[in-house]
Amino acid sequence: MQATxxxxxxxxxxxxxxxxxxxxxxxxxxxxFIIYPIIDSFWLSLHEWNGIxxxxxxxxxxxxxxxxxxxxxxxxxxNNMIIVVLSIAxxxxxxxxxxxxxxxxxxxxxxxxxxxxxxxxxxxxAVGFLFKYTYDPQFGLISAVDxxxxxxxxxxxxxxxxxxxxxxxAVICWxxxxxxMVYFLAALSSLPVEIYEASIIDGASHxxxxxxxxxxxxxxxxxxxxxxxxxxxxxxxxxxxVMTQGxxxxxxxxxxxxxxxxxxxxxxxxxxxxxxxxMFIIITVISLVTLRVINGKEEA
Amino acid sequence: xxxxIGKTLSAALALAMTVSIAACGSGNQSESSSSSSAANTSxxxxxxxxxxxxxxxxxxxxxxxxxPMTSNVKADIDRFAKDNPKxxxxxxxxxxxxxxxxxxxxLSSNTAPDIFFSWxxxxxxxxxxxxxxxxxxxxxxxDNYKDRFMDAGINQATYKDKIWGVPVENTSVAMxxxxxxxxxxxxxxxxxxxxxxxTVCDTLKKNGIIPFSLANKTQWTGSMYYMYLANxxxxxxxxxxxxxxxxxxxxxxxxxxxxxxxxWVKKDYFNKGFNGLDEDSxxxxxxxxxxxxxxxxxxxxxLSTAAGENKDFMKKVGSFxxxxxxxxxxxPDAVVGTVGDNFYHIAKTCKDPEGAFKAIQYxxxxxxxxxxxxxxxxxPVKGVKVSDPLLQNVLDxxxxxxxxxxxxxxxxxPELSDLHKSTxxxxxxxxxxxxxxxxxxxxxxxxxxxxx
Lengths: 300, 452
Prior knowledge:
The structure holds two protein chains of two kinds.
Chain A: H1 2-44, E1 47-48, E2 57-58, H2 62-68, H3 71-105, H4 110-121, H5 124-134, H6 141-148, H7 164-190, H8 193-201, H9 206-217, H10 219-234, H11 238-243, H12 255-266, H13 269-299
Antiparallel strand pairs in A: 1-2
Chain B: H1 2-19, H2 24-40, E1 56-62, H3 69-83, E2 87-93, H4 96-108, E3 115-118, H5 122-129, H6 137-141, H7 151-156, E4 158-159, E5 162-163, E6 166-167, E7 170-179, H8 180-185, H9 194-206, E8 210-212, H10 220-234, H11 236-244, H12 252-266, H13 285-289, E9 293-299, H14 301-309, H15 311-314, E10 317-320, E11 335-340, E12 343-346, H16 353-362, H17 366-374, H18 389-399, E13 404-405, H19 408-411, H20 414-428, H21 434-451
Parallel strand pairs in B: 1-2, 8-9, 11-13
Antiparallel strand pairs in B: 3-12, 4-5, 6-12, 7-9, 7-10, 7-11
């Protein structure tokens, strides 16, 4: 008895040492590259600094007051919300449909899996340039198709303040559907074959299997996909930056592009940091609330 | 217990997913700079020589990424190092945008290169105010070295009555470039007044040709029309005074400029969808090459860009200055542009400013000037001779110009410049009236002036 206890204690202690040793380097890097920058961002947000001078002027909460009344930031937040809603509403169902079709298709459709995954392999900058030309009102693909269908051509997408955001969202969906497709495909193929066989034997049709069996058992995957998409959309930056730079006249401004513009283009580092910190708070709160709502039932 | 762990974990997860935004700005910029520095390590020229005196290491950053300019700069610096064996220079080439971000960070952390450049205007003034660059007046006055340069170039490098930079690279002014064949086909003459220009546009429109090609996602492109109109209507002083706060952005000339632009947009003088097109990817030039559009108002770098993209098209290209406004206060020969483009500064942290200045001189000595002309540039020195008639036009325009207005977006402070660019885009997009735009500009200018 005495011996076993000390053995288990010994084991506990050695495990503790091992975990500490293994986790320390990670913790160290997180501390330097994540925790410290966050704290520093908040600290910077209390200052006015043009990014060049060696001294920063302490402003207190002045920047935060400006942020609360900043119409452009509010507009950017709304744009982010449009992306969140449309991303989840468009990307996840389409990705799920493709994944299910590919899964039922089996090995025959392997080459389609490859093809569908291609957009994900391209860098966002390349995708942005590609679609910039696609949307060209004079020479672009969209205008050409419109002409073929008997229209006037000259479809202006990115230059129109009402359409530009949707033009970019279409590209975002094109780029990210493959990601969720693979995500769902992995989940589908990890469902035990027995379940499928059992439901078919029980007389379920393919669609019944999908709606009543496969979908419910993938609840966890769908939830995490939704959260991934949510957070990704809230901090979205690259395609907008390449395709519209937040224009025309702020119509596609996002929180992240607005932060970049303030900090690095205009040279208001302090206010840029305020926008970044504001984003941090907004995204954290939204994510936590979403997680709570999603997991609410199980935890209660 | 499990629940608590689960909750903590999910909270931590949410945190971890969001935190990357904090690093988002810097992450993006380090990505771009790392990609450019990767491309550039090969072109970084380090010349080391054994020498008399203590060896001095200098560093230089520039953005001449296109050949033959990259080799030209390298050759200039190599000649300097050869003649002055005491020095070795580490030259780094990078892309325009990466340069801006990198330099900003380097300056704030006092790790700036000894020699770097700006486009003068707002950013240079900021460096001066932050005490980051060396006053070059004594060096420029020595043996009247400054007389080598076009006066407009020296004016541009002057702030608070001192000279802070050496104009080196190029003289570029905005002018109209047009397709001579199309003008001949429709019997059109080069317009001398804005009214004549509008008649030309109307004729072109009637024949299904777009008068002006414009890609205005880039924003400074549309600004060129605005700058010239304001200049022709209100004279060079209207803007200068507004910027210096002795005048106002609500001046009548800005309102008129805005009104004319909106009138032109409504008359479809510009190609459709210009606010979504990107000048840097050549979306405006394609319209000219395919003869769908006849003219463009662009900086004179248009010549070398177009020559590189479409040699055949260059045979058809002609140029003319922005026409005069009837009854306007502006001189019709005044130009908008830059005389020097890249102005080299010496950082306050430089240990040997004298040597650094010598190095800069090698970039604009006679050999360097000859090479720059060969590459299709117009170096900002007096008595340059060019053989290309189109370049000669540019040179003539600068030499007879009573005043050179630096691009607004470089002249103004970064914050005001950004507002100018986005409001001009709104003006072109008809989403703001000229009055609204002027009011916004004036309010921001006041706010910034009050802070100083």
